[in-house]
Design a protein that fits this description.
242 residues, alpha/beta, Undecaprenyl pyrophosphate synthetase, 6-stranded parallel beta sheet, 7 helices, 6 strands, 42% helix, binds 3-methylbut-3-enyl trihydrogen diphosphate, binds magnesium ion
Amino acid sequence: MVNERNIPRHVAIIMDGNGRWAERHGVPRSEGHRAGAGAVERAVECARDLGIEYLTLYAFSTENWRRSPQEISALMALLRDFLTTKTDTLMKHNVRLLTIGRTGDLPLGVRKLLLDSVEKTKNNTAGTLTLALSYGGRAEIADAAKKIAKLAAMGKLDPEKVDEKLFSTYLYCPELPDPDLMIRTSGELRISNFMLYELAYAELYVTDVLWPDFGKKEMLAAIEAYSKRERRFGGRKNEEQK
Ligand code: IPE
Ligand code: IPE
Ligand code: MG
């Protein structure tokens, strides 16, 4: 059984399978994404009920810009809807919203709603929901390297001081702890450019359930599996971490 002790502090999810869900139900892809938005709501609620402090959801990747303009606008419309209607819910539940990604590439209207929602929820303390939008793990690492290189070129940062710890402070959201558990729905065994730096020692859990069908039962199954894992971080069991 899952108890408070083995609840992961940070759960990151690759929400995949909306298209396959739509195909199975004989409806357009946009309907699959709409059903996926419902699963987002359930996941946020479930994380709050279970006491998961950080929930990070991969909603749109840097590579997803390759999809058709129709599909991209359907996704952006859903994001607009979510931000318009759910910011109050986040406030009610005392959940803070953060984003990671090249959010400057999002349409202006979405960007504005996003900034408003992040600003409005910034003092909430019950949990943190992070949406990865126009997010790529390689882009994040490249963007961090660029910031560091610029500071070094200006003489404001000593290149000799760059180590993993300092590097991580230039990622999109340095305050996010590394994910403990990464869940991917719809059975694909890959990370698709998600949090490459941060997932170094995350436990991975893949379910065949398609994202629109994901709910409390699946979240509990993932946490149950997580609670049975032995995390060693490269050390050895029962030896003190130095
Ligand atoms: C995930 O579902 C949503 C996004 C990537 C935005 P997909 O649209 O990738 O669904 P499949 O993989 O085609 O089933
Ligand atoms: C990963 O899913 C991106 C998101 C869930 C936002 P994709 O469907 O884009 O990934 P691939 O193409 O199967 O690797
Ligand atoms: Mg997919």
